[in-house]
Write a structure and sequence with these properties.
alpha/beta, Rossmann fold, elongated, G_HFLX_dom
Amino acid sequence: MTRTAILVGITMNQANFDYSMEELANLAEANLIEPVGVITQKIDRTNKATYVGKGKVDEIKGLADYEDVDLVIFNDELSPSQIRNLEELLEIEVMDRTRLILDIFADRAKTREAQLQVQVARLKYELPRVVGQGEGMDQQSGKGGLKNRGAGETKLEMDRRRIKQQISQLNKELDGLVAERQVQRRQRQKNEIPIVSLVGYTNAGKSTIMNAMVSAHSTSTHKQVFEKDMLFATLETSVREIILPDKKQFLLTDTVGFVSKLPHHLVKAFRSTLEEAAMADVLIHVVDVSHEHFQAMMQTTEETLAEMDVIDIPVIYAFNKADMALNTMYPRREGDTLYMSAKEQEGLDILVQMITEHVFGDYEVVTLHVPFERGDVISYLNEHAEVLETSYEEEGTRIKVNAKQADRMKFNAFIEKETQIEDES
């Protein structure tokens, strides 16, 4: 059932404030809340008790009463006391941006790990607010005696302890899941398969790019990831193996999308998930180039990645949705930037070429002479390397391949030294 709300935002001359309010409306709609009014204010500092001044509180109440809305949503994170004071004055539910995003994440989380991460973030958000509500109850009761205060504090401490215990239990389960992923990650590193990670703003088209790549370079249609034109459609990290026609292969990961003012608790909760990006050989920063605020979205993504210590990794900029951008030619490459349309599958071949240039630089052409009794070597090379020539001689098979460094080291004993010298010269 759709609820209605008034949106409230204040600015201290911040850049992209209008877009931030537009995004708040999108977040509300993603949570099945219909915005029916917007109130903004330009101020020098916030009000400690009610975030906005008394006059603005009166204006909000007047509009909320007139529109008969269900709640008021603020575009920033409010303190427990501010929410309590505002609800008392407005006589209506008050929600801040952090709670709104947490609710969306809770609704979207599908895997056990994502659900645990969101639960931890929500409990950490609620912890100080449980205390605040308790203090408010004491104040509202009008009983300031030591007995009443002591009893109230005891209950608050019990509530706080219960939440902390829940957080601890959830973190233990999360640690187990993280350990599993670390084992998988170490195995991938041992196999020396390059990792390419899709990052970017929510709804930029990361999952669409992944599905297009899987469709083009994998026969398993069930490996498609969930994609939908909505905020935070993907909360899990998906990993798919991509095998190119020349047998080169890499792992493509799709991570949770970013948004401005992403709650700190959520960033911390999803740190383990986003470690996939930190381990990547190259990042594909997917940008919705058709959006008028795409540069602000890029900045938010880069700031969030920096906060997660995802730094010093080569980046390919995939300017997606170019089909919806005005006066934009596509597919078109400019250095490490590609204008493309994943939906129309325009530019995917160029993107693959750009990935290849970044992650397969250690490939070299070598010729091997393999005895007939080592048919396992020939089978391996036919499956994992680009075979350029094969001939059969008296003492074995002569095979010319474009192979990665790990395979050249593995089969170094079979490499014809003169061709190796010729290739390296």
